Amino acid sequence: MKFALENGLWVCGTPVDPPPLVAVLEVSGAILEWTVDEPAPAPRITLTDADAADWLWRVVGEDAHVRLVEAVANAVGSVDVPIDLDAMSPLRRLALGHWMRRWWPASAREGITALPSAVLDAELALLSVAVEEFLDQDAFDADLDALLRGLADLSEPLLSDPRVAELATACSELPVAAPEPGTVPRWRADYALVAGSDGRADPGVIASGTASVSWTSVPPGVFDAGEDTVTWSVGTRIGPNGAPGRVIGRVQTVLADPTATHPLAAGIAVHLRSGAVVGVAELDAGGSAGLSLDLAESTAWNHDWVATEVHVGVGGGESRAVRERVRRFVRSRLAAPPADAFLAELLAAEDDY
Amino acid sequence: MSSDLGTGTPAATTTSVLPRRAVIDRAWRDLGSEVALLSGRDGGPLSRTVKRILDPLVFRLRVRSEFGQTVVTADIADAMRTELLDHAAVLSACASWFAVLKTRRRRLAITAGNAQELYFPVCFELAVTRGAPAVDPVEVAEVADAVLREVHDGQHHHAVEALDDLMEDPGAVAVLAAQVEQSWDDIRSGPADVTGFFERLPAVHQDASNHQQRRARQQVWSTLVTDDAPYELGVRIRRPHGDVPWSVGDLGLCAQPPQQRPSVLAESSGRPLDRSVVERVRATLRRSRDRDDLPGVPTLCSEEADRACAPWGLLAEDLQATLVNGIVVAVQLKPLEASAVPDSAFVAGIQARLRKEAYVLHARRLLAEDGALHPRQRQVVSDLADFAQPYVRRLWARLHGRDVWQEPCDDLDEVLSLLSGVARSVSLDHRQQIKAMLEPEAVA
């Protein structure tokens, strides 16, 4: 593969798909990226600091490493390098594990079980130690403490699984500070198998419909990652003492754990747009919001609400097709776990009745 | 790839030069299993072994920078190998001490910090001063416990106490106050070609693709570090309407421009140029944990009184020039703006890296494409957008340390690597905060 200067950085490999389809790993002096559902084992490599990337020779060989360092120092040319895919494969697995922590599309509606996050985290901690010669000990992806935090509070049924117990023992040998049980603040988002609320039609409803939450628009672990989980309605609220009614919108989302509130749901923006009608509000911790629409009741009845769009969170978000692609990817892994599947995936697959 | 890289030895380069870490890895394997505790799964040294033991204590990069080059010649590789093998006994003792410290750490139920990070240097020190751990387990445990106590509680305890004592002595404080007053008045405006300085500065940010260009770039920097302009700019920021291209308030160097004469004792805003003499000395003591060659506290205070009054709070003129250089870089860095176009290859490179790091946050679902993913992150994200302030503050702290240790900034390559290193560490800091805002701790 060829390293060349691209917008001021040395890059090699083909472009990858944008989030949520990309698994990234920050290694010492470089960023590695893979499109999650593509088999290509060679990553796109972006050098952020060639001097710090003191592992390059392990994957491209010493000769190519030297040529690359010289080309970078002189800021000219391009360098052909051979990539040792075997050396790369634990890094790809680590990147994929980090991706799962953030993008695993757990959804009761879609029947995709959440991963036991403490187990996945512990596996990533061990894997990080195994590839420590690639990681920058001060950087983002070398924060083992954060990965081991959940272990202290593993539930009894999980711990009684010998594979999990073995994992916990291996982690206890790591040279990091292990937290005491019960001291770790956590919010639970592991219960995707409880059914979500469905949108009931209230009296006084003028129009209603559904929309989906874009994953790239919201933090992970807050919402059910299924489609059409946002129900919205526009209706009237009778004013006191026979005053004219106000037109209000209601939006209800399905939280990852529909039996509880989620602190991070609170404050997330909701936009409703239907032609010239717009409303903006923030969700509460239960994932619902009321929007006041500046609209007379009669206008509301005459308005065509068919093209109403509701967006939760920030930015434009990804398409439904992209989310389907991610679901296909994780379903195929759950149905036929690959040889290097994480224990967390196996546990989720076994749980998937 | 072009065959002539202009390095002067085009044909021979690829055969006689080796990646540094590959050289270390190979030599390390010859040390055998006695250093297993300092090795990774594959038998090479742990990254922390390299960073905390080999680089500073075996190769001593501070005095032998040729051992620190990214790629090294066969001669240097041989010298490194010899150096490493010469330390075989010490390293083996160091590994044994680490085993002892780990055991005692568990026994004393210490959980703070990363054991490798904290104990590797002290284990090496124990190995040098005491050799391998003694046979008597009681004696060994006593030594280890004393070391653990020092690492975990007593860092520079004595120096801090001496500083407290000195500051309670009215006579000593009065002497320092008089010194500050005098030094502050001694700094005067003079003739300087500030415009010319700024016109020549961009030349050191250009790419240099061969020796001649690198030498030319270095020559420009050598004239800039002795130029009067950085000093003069440091004087102008003390006047209400001093002619400087930026506001030291916006740069985060002062809470309220213009810069005022520092006090000896008072608690300040914490901004670099507002800090009192005692605050600066405290910072020095905090930062010099690993060093025992620090002068006595009275000397430190007296030096710091002069330094606090010097332009930009730095005595060395090359450091003053480096700060101005860094400010010119900082004001162009915008990690969240795709459209920002820095004026030189060097700054563009840093900007590109910052953009890429922001993208990693997006790919990890910690940021939206160009902003906060959750309202909780708004404050941190706006700090990230306002990159110059934390950048200049951190650069100043690094330069202050260099001033105390009298480490020069006259080598341009070193300066450039300092300037990009600061960007990286500020970005790391921000990213940790952005991440923390989405974690349960932030809610509690």
Q: Outline of this structure?
A:
The complex is a heterodimer of chains A (353) and B (444). Chain A has 353 residues and is of the alpha+beta class.
Molecular structure report:
Chain A is an alpha+beta fold. Chain A folds into three domains: 2-100, no CATH class; 117-190 and 324-350, no CATH class; 205-318, no CATH class. Chain A has helices spanning 56-60, 62-74, 85-103, 117-130, 144-148, 156-159, 162-172, 297-302, 320-335, 343-350, and strands at residues 2-6, 9-12, 22-27, 30-35, 44-47, 78-80, 205-211, 230-237, 246-252, 269-274, 277-282, 288-292, 309-312. Chain A is globular and about 85 Å long. Chain B has three domains: 1-154, no CATH class; 160-192 and 228-313, no CATH class; 326-443, no CATH class. Helix content of chain B is 59%, strand content 1%. A two-stranded antiparallel sheet of chain B has the order 1-2. The model of chain B is unreliable at 1-14 (pLDDT under 50). Chains A and B meet through strand 3, helix 2, strand 6 and helix 3 of A and strand 1, helix 2, helix 3, helix 6 and helix 16 of B.
Tag the structure with descriptive keywords.
heterodimer, A: 353 residues, alpha+beta, 3 domains, six-stranded antiparallel beta sheet, four-stranded antiparallel beta sheet, 10 helices, 29% helix, B: 444 residues, mainly alpha, two-stranded antiparallel sheet, 20 helices, 59% helix, 1% strand, globular, disordered N terminus
